[in-house]
Batch of 3 targets.
Target 1
Amino acid sequence: MTAKSSNNKSQHIAFFAGSFDPFTIGHASIVERALKLFDAVVIGIGINPLKTSEVETGRRAKFIVRLYENDPRVSVLTYTGLTTDAALQAGASCLLRGVRSVKDFEYERDMADINRQLSGLETVLLYSLPEYAAISSSMVRELQTFGKDISRYLPE
């Protein structure tokens, strides 16, 4: 899939990368809030051959595309390789990350430093809303594995 946004450098485009397996209400909250700060958000679904996924990448992308089909400011693409390379190709002016905890913050700080060195892109961190801080894709996958209803953790 390709980004719908133009690669116009005068636009402030945030690149929100992840595996999104699955895309949760916490992810959706970050996108919503980022749209108040940026002209557009490109959701980049990274394909990591070292990771196994519950849901095939194309299906995850289609779900997110459908979720934002009425908002031209949001686009979705899948990519392999470095996130910074995909972000630059998408015309992003920064990387966007969500932070749920101090543990997330420390990891994201280190990644932001490396990504800035590699590409010059800054990373903008948005803290999770308190009601979403415990929600992670891995937690949702685990609940699903044990047959629990996960619908309350996913966007409608």
Note: The longest strand covers residues 40-46.
Target 2
Amino acid sequence: MDQACLKATQENTSTIFDIILHLKTIPRSGWQKKLGITRPESVADHAFGVAAMAMILSDLKRLDSAKVLKMAILHDLAESLIGDLTPDDGPKSKKIKLENLAMKKIFSTLEPKIQRQYHSIWIEYQKNQTLEAKLLHQVDKLEMALQANIYKKSGYSKQKIKPFLDSAKKQITDPEIKKLLRKIT
């Protein structure tokens, strides 16, 4: 690798790492808006929980766990640039458009081979047609339900928590994940 290429790689690595670490400062806005929590979990907190649970469930299901982990890390990365948008913030098509623009910017900081790989995984997640993508979407909802249960145990009303649990119940279809969800609700 020549010096100019090495310097460009180092500069872009710094940029992507800044974007990743910024997720630690982005609060999960649904908890703020619907429960009134002033200091809720961050998007990075959520993404870690999703990644850890998805890794275990993916291994148990004998799926491509490396892909699932990459997908889990990428699934909310756009929020580092656009914030945590909830369904109340507008139509899903608007969120998808903003996320795609943000991911394009984020991926542009990477070398082309990695850009293509991560973009492919991102599109796979969005299409939600593969076993890995379906698993991750459902684990995303399971993590939300588990976090809602944590907030309920710390004193937030069952009535305010209910929409989060109902959303998870509606969107989780995998029998094993549904069984896990029933244990906490």
Note: Residues 131-153 form the longest helix (23 residues).
Target 3
Amino acid sequence: MTPAFEKLQQALKRLPGVGYRSAERIALHLLVEKPARLPELVAALEEAAGAVRRCTRCGNLAEEALCAICADARRDQTVVCVVEHTPDLVAMERAGAFRGVYHVLHGRLSPINGVGPDDLHWEALRARIAAGEVRELILALGNDVEGEATCHFITQQVAGGAAEAGPGGAVKVSRIGFGLPSGGGVLYADAVTLRSALEGRRDYS
């Protein structure tokens, strides 16, 4: 293979879920089998790179200051589901059982990997609570050690006053978990499991 092909394959291999063989197949498909699709793909990537940003409120993908969910007046803006990553938000929306809004942390606490509160989208959530925007936090984080640590941190911050509630009063903190296997996360749960997890959430305060 040519150096340019190898460079493309290596770039594709760095994408999530794409291994060596998959990267090779995608590269061959674009360059050999369907080269007419390549300009369209490049143009779409360039357009998305210029237009897509993080929602200033929740951290979801957006093209305006607020994402479509935060800007939707029909959603309950006082009930906030906290997720680790945007794909988790997408999975929750696909389940169709939640009509509140979200907050994307863009990670979770992991001291062994050097990930602390300052590396997460935590300060924006703290500000939402302090402004009185939040009545309930639903923690939809992974059911593993790091997910538990992140849930514990958020709960302690709320209870300890570091994220003190605003004019709306005390914030209820709940945690989904019913139906999620040990060590599992939101992204890989099916819609029925996620609906059960939301309906069976427990007080985490």
Note: DSSP finds seven helices and seven strands in the chain.
